[in-house]
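Section handout 9: paired folding examples.
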Amino acid sequence: WSLHSLPDLTKHTRRRVMNASSKMTSMQPNRQPPSAKRSILKISKCSPISVLGLGLIVTQLLIFNVGVRFSSQPIVNDSPSSLTAVHTVGDSSSAGGVAGRQAQETDAQSQHGRAQRQPLDFESADAVFHGYPVQLKERKHAFSVSHCVGENYQESKAWMERSCKFSFLCFDVKEKEFSMYQPSTDADIYEHLEKRPFIDVTQSYMKQSVNKTNTMSLGGINQKWTWKPNGIPRLEWSPQIKTPPIDESLSFYELPRDVVMVPFHSLNGGNPGHLVWDDFLPIYTLLTMFDLETEKYLLPIRYVLKGDRGLWASCDFKKEKTETCAAMQKKFLPLMVGLEYQKSLATTEQFEFLPALGKELKSNLVCSRHAAAGLGGITDHGTKKSHGWEMADYEITHNHGRGGQLYSFRNFMLNNIGVNPYFKHKPPFRIVFSENSSDVPNRVIDFHRQIKRLQAAFNPDYVSIESYVFKELTLQEQMEIASQTSIFVTGCGGGAVTGMFLPKGASLLLYYVENGGVSNNIPTGTPARLDWDLFNNLAYIRTHWLPRKSMPSHTDMGAFVLLVRHELDGLLRENSYDYWF
C-alpha cells in the first residue's frame, strides 16, 4: 500500500502529506550538538520539528490505511438478477464479519438495553401466563394507582394525547378486558370537582365523576380511519374501574415484579415500518417517560377491538391480515422482549394461561405491578397527520428534538437481540443496497446500475459494496449488517425501517416516488417522502432523498456517485479531526 495507490477520494489529503514530506527532507538543522555524533542510531541529523512532522505523517497514514488489508471483491456480475454478496454475516474473515468489527468504542452512558435478566422462577409458580410464571395472591385493600400525562384540555380529543402508568393493572382472562381497582373514598372528591370544573386532578384520578373517566388511545392513529363512529373513536379506551368491598380479599395471579404489562392496539403490524414506528416506538416511549425501561421484562398484549371487525389495514381487518401480522410480529418481537422469550405476541383473544403441575386455576385475574398504555400521541407521526402521502403531512414536524431518544430506542432494540450497537467507521467502508425492500410495484428498485457505477468509481480496498434482500434474512442477520454499514441505499416504505439501525455517523440514501402523493385515495402528483418526519430527525445518521423515476439519468447518476464520495470523505475527516485541527 503506497501513497500513490490511495483512491481519488483522498487526493487532497495525499497532496498535503506529500508536500509535508518534501518540505521535511529539505530541512537542515542549524546546529548539531557534539554528543549526538556518538549516537548509534544517528538521529542527530533530524531536528525535533522533523521528528514531530514524521510522526504526524505516520499517524495519518495509519488512520487512512487501517482495515485495508481485509479482502474485498466486487459482489455483482452483469446480470441484475444475480446480485449476491460475498460477505457472510458472522464471518470474521471478511470485511463485513461481525467478529472483525467487535472492537468498538462503547459509551456506557448511552446504553439503554434492558437490565441483565435473571432466570424466571417457574418452580414456585402456581400458573404460567404466556411464558411468565405467576403466583396466586389474596389481598385486602388491593388498590391501583395511576399517573396520566398529556392532558391538553380539548374535551373531545384529549384522549388521543394521553398516556398513563398503572401500579396494579389486571387482565381478566374470562372477560378479556383490563381492570384497575380504586377505593370507595376516591369518589369523595367528585362533588367538589363538579362545583369547580377548573380544578384539574386528572394525573392522579382515573375518574373525576361518575360519568367522567380518563381515557386514552390504545394505539397509533391512522387518519384514513376517519372520525366516523366505526373509525378512530374506537381506539378511545380506559381499563374498567372497579371498587371492591373494603372488607373482602381480592384473589389474583401476580406477574413477577419486574414485568411491565402494556395493552396496545396495532396500527398495522403486518408492515415492518408500522410495526417498529407505530407500535414498538410508542411502547418504548411509554417505558422511558415513566422510567420503566430498566425493568427486565416486557409483556405487550395486542388488544383486539370489541364489536365490528378490525379497522382498515389493522391486524384484525381480514383473516389474511391477521396471519401477516402474526408472522411479522413473531419475527420482530425479540427487538422488544429479547431472544430468550419464545412465545408469540399475546392478544386479548389468544394467550396461554395454564396451571402449574398438580394445581388448578383459582382466579381469572392476572395482575402486574407495572403497566402502561396510551400510544396515540407518541408514535412516529402523532395524532394529526399521516406519513407523507399528503402535502398537509409536511406542515407539522412531530419528531424534532427526538433524535437522542430515537438513538436510545435503536440501541435498546439491538441490545435486546445481542447485537453490538456501537461501530467505528473505517476502510473498507461498507456500502449496502437493499433490494426489493417493498412489495409495492413502483417502490421495487433495481440498483444494478448504481452498484456498477460505484464499483468503477472506488478502489475495492476502500469500499465494500454489498446487496441483500433483507426480508430473506433472519432478524439478527439484518441487524448485524445494518449496524456495521457506513452507507445504506434503499427505497422508502416499510422496508426502509432497516435504515434506523445504522450506526452513528452513517448515511441513509432513500429513493422516493417524486409524484406518488395521494389524498383521499386520489393521486395528486406531489412527492411522497414516506416517513420523512422520522428519518429527517434521526440525528445520529444523515438522511438524503433521491427521486425514483429519474434515477437512471446521467445527472442523477452523477449526483449519486458524488454524494457517496462526499459522505465517505466526511467520515475520513471526522476520524482524523485531531490531525487537521
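Moving on to protein 2 of 2.
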Amino acid sequence: RAMSDSDGDESDLELDDLFKRRRCTDVPCCILFIVGMGALLGLFIYGCVHGNTKKLNHGIDSRGQQCGVDPMVIDRPLLYFCPVRTSQGEQSVNLDDPICVSECPGPGSNLATGCNTPEIYPTTQVGSRYCLPSSSGEAQAREKVEESMRSNFNKVWVLLERVGKAWPVLLLSVVLACIMGYIFLFMLKTVARCIIWVCAAIGLLGFLALGAYLWSVAQKNTGSMQFTLQALAVISWVLSLLVGFLVCCCGSAVDLSTACMGQAAIVIWRMPVLLLSPLIKAVLKTVVFIVLAAGLIQLISIGDVSGMGRARHLSLSSAQIWMVVGYLFLSFWLLAFMSAVYQFSIAYAAAGWYCAPCKDSTSTRKIVNQCAVFEGVRIGLWYHTGSLAVGSALIAFLQLLQTVLEWAEKKSKMEGDLNPVTSCIVKSLLCCCKCVEGIVQFVNKNVYIDIALTSKGFCTALGSVAEIIIHHGAAMAILNGATFIFQIVGLASITACCGLVSALLLSTSKYRDITSAAYLPNPGAAIAVSCILAFIVGWAFMAIFDMTSDTLLICHAEDLQRSDGPKHTEDNKEFAEMYAKAEERAKELQAQSSDDEQPGRYSRRG
C-alpha cells in the first residue's frame, strides 16, 4: 500500500502495522526551536544592518584610516604601499607608509599617490582591496608585501581570496563528484560485487597518481609552495595505503557487504526521488551554510577595527561576543536539524518499502509511494519537529564547545600564554568532544528511524533503540561493518579522481602565469579544497546507503520482536536470508571468543 494520510492523521488502516498513528512529539522542544530560529533571524538582520564587512578586509593607511570605510577615504578603497630605495639602490616598498588610492598604478601611470617618493611601480589589483607589485622587477617587493599579509588574523582572508580564483575548477569538481556518485549507485544495482573492487582500485591508484603528480610539481618549486605540495603528496600516499589495507583486511566480508548494499540499492532505485535526495540535501545545506556564514561575517564586523596596512585588530564588547556565540549555536542547530529531517525522510521512505507487500507471490517488486521522501519531510516537520530538534541541539552544543575550545587555543598561542600542559588538556577535550559527537550522531540516526516507525518521542525512541541493540546488536554490527567497506572505497574513488583532475587543471597557464588575473601562487590550497568538496558530495551519496540499510535492519529487528511472530519476512526474503547469515557469523565469532577465553585443560595419568 502506498503511504498516505487524510485529515492530517495517518490511521492504522491506511498504513502498515509498524507505523503507528501519528502524533506530535516533544512539543515544548518544538516551541523552543521555533523561538531559537526567530532569534537567529533577528541576529542575522542586526548584523546586516549594523555590520560592515569592509572593516575585516580593507587596508588601513599610515594615519589609521581604513580605505573605503572612513569618511576621509571613502572614495579610495585600495591600499598602496609607497616605494622606497634600499641602501644598495634596489627598489622596495615601505610597509610603514601605506596610503589609500582610488585605483592601482599601472605601467607608465601618472597617478598622484601622495607618497614622499614621486616614482611609482606597476601594480595588480588584488581582491578589489590591495595594489601589489606585478612586474618581475618587483618580485622581491611583492613577496615582502605578501609576507606582511600573513598574520594569523589575515591568513583566512588571503586563502579564501586565492582559492576563490579557482572557482571553475572547484565547481567542476563538485559536478564530477555528483556524476561519479550516480554511477556508483547504478553499478551497485547491476554489478555490486564487481564495483567494490573497481572502486578500491580507482581509489588506490588515484591517490598514488595524485601523490606522484604533486611530488613532481613540488620539485619545480621552492619555499612554502614546495612544502605544501609535498605534504599533500604524502597525505595522498597515506590514503592509498589505508584503502589497500582496508581491502586486504576486510576482503572476507565482501560477500555480506555486497548483499547488504545491494538491498539498499534496490530500495533506492525503486523510489527515484531517493536518487535526487543527496543532491537536494547538498544544495540546500550548502546554500544555508553560505547564508549563515555571510551573516556571521556581518555580525563579527560590528566590532571596532584598528591597525595599519594589512595588520588589524578586531575588538568586540562582551554583549557582541555573546551575540556571536548565540549565532554560532543557533546556526549549528539549524544545520543539524536539516540533517535530522533528511535522515528522518530517508528512514520513512525505506521503512515504507520494507513494510509494503509484493505485487504478487511470484514477484519481488513492491507497491510503494514513489514520493515517500517528500511525505517523510512533511511528516517530520508537522509531527516531529520537537523530537528532531532535541537530537540536533545535542549536536549543536558539542560543535559549539569544539569551536570555543579551538578559538581559545588559537588565541592563547597568538598571545604566547599557552603552555604544553594547557595545550594537552585542550587537545584532549577536543578529542573527547569529537568522539562524543560521533556517538551522539550514531544514536540520533537510529532514534530518528524508530520515530519514523513508531511516532514515539525522542527519549522513548531512545529506549526502544537500546533494546534493539541489546537483542540484535551483534548481527547489526556485522552488517554495519560490511556497509562501511563500500562507503570507504566509494569515497576514496570519488575524492581521488576529483583531486587528480583539479591538480591537472590548476597546473595550466591560466593559474600559473603571474600576469593572469586567476594566478595562484600556491595551488595546494585549491587542490585541498577541491578534494574536500568532492569528499562532502561523495559522503552525501554514501550516507543515503548507510541510512537506508540501517532502516531496513531496524525494521527487520522490530518485526522479529513481534509477540505474534514476524509478518514481513515473506516479502523480504533476500534481506531475511542476509540477516540470518549475519546472525550465524555473529554466533561463530562469539563461540570463537569463548573458546579463546576458556582456560587450558590438562589431563594427568598416574
